[in-house]
Automatic annotation (TrEMBL):
<keyword id="KW-0808">Transferase</keyword>
<feature type="transmembrane region" description="Helical">
    <location>
        <begin position="12"/>
        <end position="33"/>
    </location>
</feature>
<comment type="similarity">
    <text>Belongs to the 1-acyl-sn-glycerol-3-phosphate acyltransferase family.</text>
</comment>
<keyword id="KW-0812">Transmembrane</keyword>
<dbReference type="GO" id="GO:0047184">
    <property type="term" value="F:1-acylglycerophosphocholine O-acyltransferase activity"/>
</dbReference>
<dbReference type="GO" id="GO:0042171">
    <property type="term" value="F:lysophosphatidic acid acyltransferase activity"/>
</dbReference>
<dbReference type="GO" id="GO:0005783">
    <property type="term" value="C:endoplasmic reticulum"/>
</dbReference>
<dbReference type="GO" id="GO:0006629">
    <property type="term" value="P:lipid metabolic process"/>
</dbReference>
<keyword id="KW-0472">Membrane</keyword>
<dbReference type="InterPro" id="IPR002123">
    <property type="entry name" value="Plipid/glycerol_acylTrfase"/>
</dbReference>
<feature type="domain" description="Phospholipid/glycerol acyltransferase">
    <location>
        <begin position="70"/>
        <end position="156"/>
    </location>
</feature>
<keyword id="KW-0012">Acyltransferase</keyword>
<keyword id="KW-0443">Lipid metabolism</keyword>
<keyword id="KW-1133">Transmembrane helix</keyword>
<protein>
    <submittedName>
        <fullName>PCAT2 acyltransferase</fullName>
    </submittedName>
</protein>
<dbReference type="Pfam" id="PF01553">
    <property type="entry name" value="Acyltransferase"/>
</dbReference>
<dbReference type="GO" id="GO:0016020">
    <property type="term" value="C:membrane"/>
</dbReference>
């Protein structure tokens, strides 16, 4: 009976997750379409709300479809309380759970990730701090950008 459930559930889950991924890509594409100051200015108004609410909800639903149920104990720090979050170790797709629970903050990511099909568009909508592994000044530039965003008094989303 368990094998039969797996045979039925696996394709259903795969179809649902694919649909949610495409929907997230569409939302990210709409929110960043003709974005003024692409990457250099923070998303504002409906664009920012769309990313924070819709992408967060879609991520929650995707993890639920995969079989994960996440419960938060305590209160997530607000932007004025903590402009920077630290999450460790961040070595897997579970990082997206933290992003969804914290309102889709900006993240620090490899520059190469932004050119990945589908995921690159979704990642770009989070306005990441892109780290270039070829640039010798990348570490210094990344720290400067994180500091600039943290001191922006709420113009930029939190950075994780």
């Amino acid at each position: 009976q368990t094998v039969l459930q797996g045979i039925i559930l696996l394709p259903l889950r795969a179809i649902c997750i694919t649909f949610l991924l495409l929907l997230a890509w569409l939302v990210a594409s709409i929110a960043t379409f003709r974005q003024p100051g692409r990457g250099f200015l923070p998303l504002e108004g409906w664009r920012r709300r769309m990313i924070q609410t819709t992408l967060s909800s879609l991520t929650h639903i995707a993890y639920f479809v995969m079989g994960f149920q996440v419960k938060v104990k305590g209160k997530v720090a607000s932007l004025p309380e903590a402009p920077i979050f630290v999450a460790a170790p961040h070595s897997s797709f579970f990082d997206a759970i933290i992003c969804a629970l914290t309102g889709m903050p900006s993240i620090v990511s490899r520059e190469e990730n932004l050119s990945t099909p589908l995921f690159g568009t979704i990642l770009s909508s989070l306005q990441p701090v892109a780290v270039s592994r070829q640039d010798p000044d990348s570490r210094k530039n990344t720290v400067a950008e994180i500091t600039r965003r943290a001191l922006s008094r709420g113009q930029w989303p939190q950075v994780i």
